[in-house]
Design goal:
- There is one protein chain.
- The chain is α+β, with helices and mostly antiparallel strands.
- It has a single domain, classed as Muramoyl-pentapeptide Carboxypeptidase, domain 2 (2-Layer Sandwich), CATH 3.30.1380.
- Helices cover 30% and strands 25% of the residues.
- The protein has a nine-stranded mixed beta sheet.
- A hairpin with a 2-residue loop joins strand 3 and strand 4.
- Helix 3 crosses helix 5.
- The chain starts with a strand and ends with a strand.
């Protein structure tokens, strides 16, 4: 089943899924706004892999989005929610900006409030009101791309928060206000 971008965003807005940040897709050339948007994600905790065109010719593909939601679930609790479509588009924009082909490694997508609280007890780097709990954040790395290069590309998108964690070798992306740290 497919729906238009307008229908999907209207539905997402009703569920409180749309992000406050401007879409990173505004920075892509017109040719990349048509055709297919495909993501290849590997969840490093579950080793699940998805290779899905989540948007085709102006329409989000609901089955692919559901598969992406499942891959981005809280691997500790097994819980999943509908991830912010702007976040999915930001991941796509990042890979497009870097001309990255191949899989993207996911360290963390959705986090349940219980998981987030447990992580906060062991690390001062976990926000109490983390956007991970709203399906609006992801921690990732792009194999064969330097973390510094990925960080620069993400910052240039100006589409939300960018956290740089070189010791742990990952980048945090979210659809909150434009800011950066690390």
């Amino acid at each position: 089943m497919s729906v238009s971008r307008r229908q999907f965003l209207g539905f997402a807005g009703l569920l409180g899924l749309s992000g406050a940040a401007p879409s990173a897709l505004a920075n892509l050339p017109a040719v990349q706004r048509h055709g297919e948007r495909r993501l290849q994600l590997r969840n490093l905790h579950t080793n699940e892999f998805i290779n899905a065109p989540y948007w085709i010719d102006g329409e989000y593909q609901l089955e692919a989005l559901q598969s992406l939601n499942h891959c981005l679930r809280d691997h500790r609790s097994g819980e999943s929610i509908s991830m912010d479509p702007a976040l999915i588009d930001n991941i796509f924009s990042l890979q497009s900006k870097l001309e990255h082909r191949g899989e993207i490694h996911i360290i963390s997508g959705y986090r349940s409030p219980k998981t987030n609280a447990a992580l906060r007890q062991h690390s001062n780097g976990v926000a109490k009101k983390s956007l991970h709990m709203q399906g609006r954040a992801v921690d990732l790395r792009l194999p064969k791309q330097s973390l510094g290069t990925v960080r620069k590309a993400a910052l240039a998108m100006r589409s939300g928060g960018v956290g740089h964690y070189p010791k742990s070798n990952f980048l945090h992306l979210d659809t909150g206000r434009v800011r950066h740290w690390g």
